[in-house]
Amino acid sequence: MLEDRTTAASSATVWPAAYPQGYAVVDVETTGLGRDDRIISAAVYRLDARGEVEDHWYSLVNPERDPGPVWIHGLTSDVLEGAPLFQDIAEEFGARLEGRVLVAHNAVFDWQMIAREYARARSEAPVRQRLCTIALSKELGLPLPNHKLESLAAHFGVIQQRAHHALDDARVLAEAFRPSLHAAAQGGVRLPLHECRPLTEWTDRAVPRQQPGYGAYRPTSWRPARKRPSCPYPNPGRYEEGKPLKQGMRVAFSGDTSVERDLLEDRAIEAGLHVATSISRLTSLLVTNDPDSGTSKVVKARQYGTPVVDEAAFGQLLGDVEPASEG
User: What integer pLDDT is reported at residue 296 of this predicted model?
Assistant: First the structure.
């Protein structure tokens, strides 16, 4: 019934000429959330310009290390041992992304993981734009209790069969994205597209780490070739405890984070926040897991009375950022 209603509505909709010509709905399962974590499975549903499924693809990936939280994704070392390495599937994976907009739920995370794997393989993913379904649901003003995939699926009557299985998560997202796309087209909503910038400047750290069953594993680091976009919203002032963040607020980060810094900064930017590299009297919020450290940012925040929250609290706040005031 949902598909029938979507098809009927789309037939009466003048499709926006600026909308993309095709989409690749992606989900990856990983060994964790950090810079050195690896993809262990990947799935792609290719959709046409109006969100109709063309085909789908799925592969396990040997991460050459421990699989991480097996209790979440269910993929053990034994299961992954005979799987192809990422460089073995990179060409086929890329062929399914090429010329399309990458669509994912919390797309900046999936994109960062994919971009890093291609950097390891001394290559680049052939995709130039991404669309986050969380951002799209906010643009559409969907009445969701939270921004979990299961809530988006339930809103559109999509039944999830195997949560945290890349192929089923990609299917669920594809089925929820189609009516979202048609609602956007019908309402003349500009799609929240963001540039996908490849990661460059591969370097190996000096100290290898031993992983059971895989020999020496050498963590790596990359620097993204990019310039941060300027925030389009005015600064509404400081964050107040108990209240939501608001677009335009200036947020600074200090110290180590469990989720890599680039990912946190990208999430903040996509939510409409201004990422500041230093602390001033205009800074709205400092994010740090060590508020008692003597870093220059923490010291200045103390001097200026800048509010401070930890990484976990900031992650919760990012889920409900108020739009900037009009005018």
Answer: 85
C-alpha to C-alpha distance for 154 and 167, rounded to whole angstroms? 18
Is the CA virtual torsion 278, 281, 284, 290 positive or negative?
Answer: positive
Could you give the CA distance from residue 140 to residue 145 in angstroms, rounded to a whole number?
14
Secondary structure string (H, E, C) spanning the chain: CHHHHHHHHHHCCCCCCCCCCEEEEEEEEECCCCCCCCEEEEEEEEEECCCCEEEEEEEECCCCCCCCCHHHHCCCHHHHCCCCCHHHHHHHHHHHHCCCEEEECCHHHHHHHHHHHHHHCCCCCCCCEEEEHHHHHHHHCCCCCCCCHHHHHHHCCCCCCCCCCHHHHHHHHHHHHHHHHHHHHHHCCCCCEEECCCEEEEEECCCCEEECCCEEECCEEEEECCCCCCCCCCCCCCCCCCCCCECCCEEEEECCCCCCHHHHHHHHHHCCCEECCCCCCCCCEEEECCCCCCCHHHHHHHHHCCCEECHHHHHHHHCCCECCCCC
In the chain, the domains with their CATH numbers are 2-200 (3.30.420.10), 227-327 (3.40.50.10190)
Q: What are phi and psi for residue 282, nearest 5 degrees?
A: -90, -10
Question: Residue 204's pLDDT is what?
Answer: 40
- Residues 145-154 pLDDT 10s: 888 899 999 9
Each residue of 74-132: pLDDT tens digit? 999 999 999 999 999 999 999 999 999 999 998 888 998 999 899 999 899 999 999 99
Q: Mark the ranges of the chain whose per-residue pLDDT is less than 50.
A: 5, 8-10, 201-226
Distance of CA 172 to the CA centre of its chain: 17
Position 98 scores a pLDDT of 96
